[in-house]
Request: fold
Amino acid sequence: MESLQHLEAQLLEALKDIKTDAALNDIKAQYVGKKGHLAAAMQTMKTLPAEERPAFGQAVNALKTVLLNHLDSHQKALNEAAMMARLEQEVIDVTLPGVPFEQGSKHILSQIIERIEDLFIGMGYLIKEGPEVESDLYNFEKLNLPADHPARDMQDSFYIDEHTLLRTHTSPVQVRTMLAYGGEKPVKIICPGKVYRRDDDDATHSHQFMQIEGLVVDEKTSMSDLKGTLLEVARTMFGADREIRLRPSYFPFTEPSVEVDVSCANCEGQGCSICKQTGWIEILGAGMVHDNVLKDAGYDPTKYQGFAFGMGVERIAMLAYKIEDIRHFYTNDQRFLTQFKDDQGGLEE
Ligand code: PHE
Reply:
């Protein structure tokens, strides 16, 4: 009985040094395990006189409850300490400086397209898009370019099968729109998008590039409407002081056709290396829509006229920013792209 009374004090003393679950398990086995102190005490019961045994048995059982309680609360204390240690380790310091995050920006070609779109939306145009894989019918035939027409060579094409190709310009979107309008409604659209031509890539040629074409069909449209519209484009992209001039040219889908030059912003028209000493730089092709094109799209050419124009976005960008190689647009070199971040010399609004 006496040694029983010491066991509780001994356990409490031993627990003071116990810092791990493993050590606690050992102590537990030593006191309340099958071969532990309490089990040994039970063994000694046999040696006691019969009348003392019940009281001794009760004392051992009561002590067992007490010891188990101590062990249990020590386990809880260990768990709590472990949790606190983990929380301390995992603490997030919200005052630490953040990791700088490189912000992307719109590609320069997208910036230019959006700028031109904004200009035309302001003039009441709709933006129309169409498929890049196009049928010969819309890309050529309905644009006054029947099979075997020599002018098809002006735009060397990637054919997919006999009647299907990668569009060589966005003019087929204009054809599709006129057909959809059924020869009745006036048309006022621009068509931005990717186009493809069989070209050997070099500093000024790419087999894939971006175009913006425009089309107006109405009962009263004239060459002077076309000129006024294109002057706006030139001034938006190259500065408020620019002038334009129209030179006669040839496109199968327009008659008359013109090529449009903008006065050189670099030398103010005096002549420099950029404008090849002429004072003028060619920026787009345009003209009055050919009667055959109107007819094929269901419009009566005695009632309706139209004008159309088409420009290469890369060319505009190269001139506006003095970019010397068209391939820069496609190779995704950060040193090139970041120059046109909105906050680093990109187009101002
Ligand atoms: N479709 C012509 C081209 O891609 C551009 C153009 C459009 C010319 C409209 C005149 C009128 O070359």
Q: What stands out?
A: The beta strands are 126-127, 133-135, 159-161, 164-166, 187-196, 208-218, 244-251, 254-263, 280-289, 305-312. Residues 250 and 257 are 5 Å apart (CA to CA).
